[in-house]
Amino acid sequence: MRIFPLVFAFGFPVAWIGHRTQLFDLYGWLALTPALVWKGQVWRIVTYAFLPISPADWCISLFWLVTLVSALGRNWTGRAFWGYCLLGALGGGLFILLLSPNSPCTVAGGWAMVFALLVAWDWMYRRERLLMLGIGEMSVRKAAVLIALINSFILFFCAGWFFMLAMWCGGLVGGLWLFARTKWLMGKTPRQIRSERVARLEL
After folding, report:
1. How many angstroms separate the CA atoms of 24 and 14, rounded?
2. What kind and span of H or E run contains 132?
3. Of 3, 57, 85, 176, which has the most beta carbons under 10 Å away?
4. Strand pairing partners for 130?
5. Which of 93, 105, 8 is nearest to 59 (CA)?
6. What is the Cα–Cα distance from 118 to 55, expressed in whole angstroms?
7. SS3 192
8. Per-residue pLDDT tens listing for the chain (203 residues)
9. In b/e form, how buried is each residue of 50-70, taking b as 16+ CB within 10 angstroms?
10. CB 166 within 8 A of CB 92
11. Helix and strand numbers, DSSP H then E, in the chain
12. Whole-angstrom distance, CA of residue 164 vs CA of residue 151
């Protein structure tokens, strides 16, 4: 899981060096451009999330990703964590792809993953208490909602309502996955208990 924030951390500096030296163009290869995705470059649906669009976007997104990775580190394996974050990125990418399929615009930024991780943080720790600097003590749920609202305002005024809604979809898809996974595990538990009883009887 520690590799995840490192990949994001080096995304913008490497892209900036490539642009300044004119040796390569990461945004041209990896950013989300719906018109190119429909031509077969499907990797862009998730790779856009690892390329911040500006220094400010890079700093803010990296701060929240590192914070949330440290908070959720003991809940998932590295593979499960990467899969969840890519699912969040996919949710944001598909929103843009389906509602603006012919757009030649380039989209980048890791906010879909940030919102997905905020949803996971709330899902797993919502009743725990924490101390927010400058605000005071509050529950994880209130902290997650507050952080989501602040970042939503930033996205709205910097990138517009369409991009903000797309990034929300990352959190929505993450929440739906957590809900479905919980239901599946709850449905699986009784069968596991019965099979364990049968095994003991056979012994």
Report:
1. 10
2. strand 129-132
3. 85
4. 138
5. 8
6. 22
7. helix
8. 778 888 999 989 999 999 889 899 999 999 999 999 999 999 999 999 999 988 999 999 999 999 999 888 888 888 899 999 999 999 999 999 999 988 888 899 999 999 999 999 999 998 888 877 777 788 899 999 999 999 999 999 988 999 999 999 999 999 999 999 888 888 765 454 344 433 333 33
9. bbbbeeebbebbbebbbebbe
10. yes
11. 9, 2
12. 9
Distant-in-sequence, close-in-space partners of 128: CB < 8 Å, separation ≥ 6: 139, 140
User: What's the rounded Cα separation, in Å, for the pair 41 and 36?
Assistant: 6
Amino acid at 8: F
Q: Is the dihedral of CA 42, 46, 93, 102 positive or negative?
A: negative
Q: Provide long-range contacts, Cβ within 8 A and 24+ apart, for 39-48.
A: 44/93, 45/89, 45/90, 45/93, 45/94, 45/97, 46/86, 46/89, 46/90, 46/93, 48/89, 48/93, 48/107, 48/108, 48/109
Residues 6+ apart with CB under 8 A from 178: 119, 120, 123
Q: List residues bridging with 139 in a β-sheet.
A: 129
Which domains are seen in the chain, by residue range? 3-202 (1.20.1540.10)
Q: Which segments of 74-160 does DSSP mark as H helices, in order?
A: 78-99, 111-125, 140-159
Residue among 153, 54, 72 at smallest CA distance from 110 = 54
